[in-house]
Amino acid sequence: MEIVKQLKQIVIILLVFAVVNLCLLSFQSYQMTKYGRVVNFSGIVRGASQKLVKNELSNYPKDQEIEKINAIIQGLIKGDKTLDLPLVKNKIFQVKISIVQEKWTDLKAEIIAFREGKSTKQQLLQISEDFWIVTNDATFAAENTASSHIQSLRKLYLVLFLINLTVLTFVWKINKKISLNIKDRIRAEISLKSSEEKFQQLANNINEVFWMTDINFREIIYVSPAYEKIWGKTCESLYLDINQWKNSIYPQDVSFFDRVLENFLINQEETFDLEYRILSSDNQIYWIHHRGFLIKNIENQAYRIAGIAEDITQKKNIEICLREELKQTILLQTITKKIRASLEIETILNNTAHILAIKMKIDSCLIYTYIGDDQFQLNLIGTNINKNIRHYDFLNQLDKDDSYLKRIIDEDKAVVINKIEEEPLLISNQHLLQAENIKSLLTIRTSYKQNINGVIELHQYDKIHNWQPKDIKLIEAVASQLGIAIAQANLLAENKKQLEKLNQQNIQLQEKSKQAEAANKAKTNFLANMSHEIRTPLNAILGFSDLLSQKIIDPENVNHLQSIIFSSNNLLALINDIFELIRLESGIVKVESETVNLTEIIRQIYYKFSEKANQKNIKLIVNLNKNIPDILEFDKLKLYQIINNLLSNAIKFTKLGSVKVDVWGNYFQSDLKTRQENCSIVIRIKDTGIGISQEKQKIIFDRFTQVSQETNREYEGIGLGLTLTQKMIQLLEGNLKLESELEKGTTITVTLPHLNIIQLSNQKALNLITETQLTTQEQKNIGQQKKLVLSNYQNS
């Protein structure tokens, strides 16, 4: 209504404004036309005056032009309606036009005189020029007057334009406001229409029932089409009778529904929420979740009730199934705990039979263990039987080829029989069950890793038992757990047997170990005695050979005697090595710690092998690092043997070049001033001998092994040196590293860790024993050379 009023006002304003504009425009047009005519007529007079000057009017026989000019002049002075000339009130123009009139009067008299011959042309021309001048002056005055009037009209037009602009602006603003209101209303109407359409579409397509009633819940105002799908009745029937809704409620839920709804209506609560059952038109039970709420007006007063009714039958069925599954799970957990409470097979099976009989409400539960393969055997161990029923193990009455029994053994699922007389598998055995009055039967195997290890058998005597899916699912789960338990119990029994067997074997091994220890002790005693018995004659041979060497002069006999001495020494060395190796392997040899001067040992070994190196014309080089401790705590004899054996091998297998010995110490901290309590000694012996191939390096430390048969023949020896050396290094908790290349030489590095330092001086006595290569001439003075080297060593 407000918009209509505003539109009416605008129409009235525009009509008034149009009329005023029309009047003003007409007046302006009229005024401009009148003053324009004044200018036009003034122009006619001026034109006529020009003609007079040119002596044109005076020659006309008629006076029409003169009369016309006369009428115009009179109209300009007094105004003339016939000529539509206004009375110009401008004083200047009136003065000017009066002068024109005077001149015109003189000119007319002169024209008449000229025509009558009373005046000359010269006089007429003079008066004409005067008339022309004043008419020009009057004309310009008329133009100025008209221009001033037109200017005034233009100002009026400008004012009118501004007024028009103001009015139009005001109208535009009002129109804009109205248009915005109209647009808002149109949008609101469109939105409302769209919402109504969407609501209608939503209500027609959603599965929930949307409804609306009056405040007292006595009349249905709206109900969505989903009502027909769930309730199976038409919406029109509900519009006619709202009690149809209440009449469909499941009888046991009516009182609950009335109580909730009554409480909602009396207390005017904001919402209500309840679940109940209904009976549809086809007598199917549906679960409904019902939610309602109040609708209030702008005065905050409730005038409608609306709500949503949802079919939750499927959800409820799932909840019921889950609840049943939870019960089954708890029951299964109880049975599983009972099963796992013991590792004794009889206890396990009896506990399981007892629980199944009670929980499944059956008359008899029998549990067998199964032994297959070559022998077929079912051993009944677990039982739970009603006191009024006789024990009857049906499965043991069947032949092993019976189809019913074979199906139980072959299939990993329950064999369910509700009625004995209707089961085809029991045709040949029905009389056995009927004789015992057994009505229903359920049997399932237990297995572990798909291998059967037992059977569960359930009997119902007094009535037919319809086995439910949940019961079958439970018994299958129990069978799975029981199969694992039987397998574990069997495994435990087998482990016990194995343990007993192992204990018996351990007793036997301990006895044999004692015997072996006694035999080993006897062998050690035998070897010790044999060592003494073998060395005694060899020492006699060596002693008498030494005495004979002083008396025999004959060269041939001397050679024979030297052969005897040489062979005896080799034999004694071989026997010593063999017995030393046996002692090392048997663990008889112990580490004997004593103070050791490593420098002195190296010097002794150097002097021992320097002459042999000179004889083979090879260099023997010894480098002792300055950081070697003065005195160490170590097994002196074994250290000597290790260096001696390695250096002996290096010289033996080197024909040309050199043998170099490097000795240095490794400390946990490099600063010698800290005086570390222990260190590692590294001994490296490098030669330029025949070398060892990669294949032979794997076996070089094996006893009685040399690189090849040719090496054995050329260099003698039986291959015990490196074996003994490695055994002694291992005994001393050290390690040996071999690096060699065929025909290029061998490097052996021995590391002896964690040696106790007894003495470590600030300045070391020895840097190295310089390289020594004795020439042929120097070999003659070998004694002097030895003294020279020793002197240099001591002085350094």
From TrEMBL:
It catalyses: ATP + protein L-histidine = ADP + protein N-phospho-L-histidine. The keyword Cytoplasm does not apply. It comes from Crocosphaera watsonii WH 8502. SMART domains: GAF, HATPase_c, HisKA, PAC. Residues 485-522 form a coiled coil. SUPFAM superfamilies: ATPase domain of HSP90 chaperone/DNA topoisomerase II/histidine kinase, GAF domain-like, Homodimeric domain of signal transducing histidine kinase, PYP-like sensor domain (PAS domain). Residues 272-324 form the PAC domain. InterPro entries: GAF, GAF-like_dom_sf, HATPase_C_sf, HATPase_dom, His_kinase_dom, HisK_dim/P_dom, HisK_dim/P_sf, PAC. This is Circadian input-output histidine kinase CikA. It is an enzyme of class 2 (transferase). PANTHER family: OSMOSENSING HISTIDINE PROTEIN KINASE SLN1, TWO-COMPONENT HISTIDINE PROTEIN KINASE. It is found in: Membrane. Residues 195-268 form the PAS domain.
